[in-house]
Amino acid sequence: MLLPGWRWKPRYTVRAMDPVLYGPGEGEHHDAGPAQIFIKATGEQTGGSFFLAESTLAPGFAGPPPHRHRELHDMFYVLDGRLTLQLGDREIEAGPGTFACVPPGVVHTFRNDSDAPVRLLNFNTPSGWENYMRDVAEAAKSGPLTPEVMARVASHYDFEFTR
């Protein structure tokens, strides 16, 4: 129920943007070796508010080394399979429907320890992570994504390895 005289006022003005609609298997596709990435939303499409990708991780995908972000919230929503998540000192096997939101400063990583692919949504706020994903995919064209290669790419982003 609205109070008399009350009117909703936006906190900020968002520039006019076109709607974004992608069906299954659509989006900006990147082959990053053992990870297939479909970028669904970028900063350009969301007024800088967030990034969203649907990724499929091959069985045995080692994931990035443990790391933290200074400003980025890193979120994972498992669609299919079992994703191993390390969140601080806690390690969990995240099945379909599991959601994790990792705030800035928390050490984390993820991997696929199973014999089946894992399909997940990765959200990040604020946006900008789409550029990291593009750069990782570009690096994967030259060879395996070793910790050294990932560290080189990550050094340009809000990504601090902890080991």
Description of the structure:
This protein is α+β, with helices and mostly antiparallel strands and 163 residues long. It has a domain at 50-161: Jelly Rolls. The protein has helices at residues 43-46, 129-140, 147-154, and strands at residues 28-32, 35-41, 51-57, 67-68, 73-80, 83-87, 90-94, 99-102, 108-111, 118-125, 160-161. Strands 1-2-3-10-5-8 form a six-stranded antiparallel β-sheet. Strand 6 (83-87) and strand 7 (90-94) form a beta hairpin. It is globular. The model has no long low-confidence stretch (mean pLDDT 90).
Index terms:
163 residues; 15% helix; 3 helices; alpha+beta; three-stranded antiparallel β-sheet; Jelly Rolls
Gross morphology is globular
User: Which fold name corresponds to the CATH topology of one domain?
Assistant: Jelly Rolls
Task: Please identify the top-level CATH class of one domain.
Answer: Mainly Beta
The CATH H-level homologous superfamily of one domain: Jelly Rolls
Q: What is the mean pLDDT?
A: 90
Q: Indicate the proportion of strand residues.
A: 25-35%
Strand order of the largest sheet: 1-2-3-10-5-8
Sheet having the most strands: 6 strands, antiparallel
- For the secondary structure, the number of strands is 11
Q: Given the structure, what is the number of helices?
A: 3
Structural class comes to alpha+beta
* C-alpha-based Rg, rounded: 17 Å
CATH architecture heading of one domain = Sandwich
| String of helices and strands | EEHEEEEEEEEHHE
Low-confidence stretches: none
C-alpha termini separation: 53 Å
Helix content: 10-25%
